[in-house]
Amino acid sequence: MAEQQLRTVLEGGGFFEGPRWHEGAWWVSDFYRHTVSRVTSDGAETVVVEVEGQPSGLGWLPDGSLVVVSMKDHRVLRYADGTLSTHADLTEHCGGHLNDLVVTDAG
Hints:
mainly beta; Thrombin, subunit H
């Protein structure tokens, strides 16, 4: 069996949630920092968007826009062209915090 080596890719986070690999980078929510970040393999972090209601699950729609679960306010947010908007409000269907999500190829 091949020997494997572990290394830290990103330090300083609060609590990482909903990790995804997308277009050559690691994307992750940090719900205590209220951020969604893109992290390259060399550990360079770019904060893509801030989500006040605590971000969690991540996905991408067919048009390339990012969707993010906003845990505390029961919304799925869409981030496109630098703008964050409500994609779906699930308040009437949610008794607690939202968490993860899955996006199909059809969106």
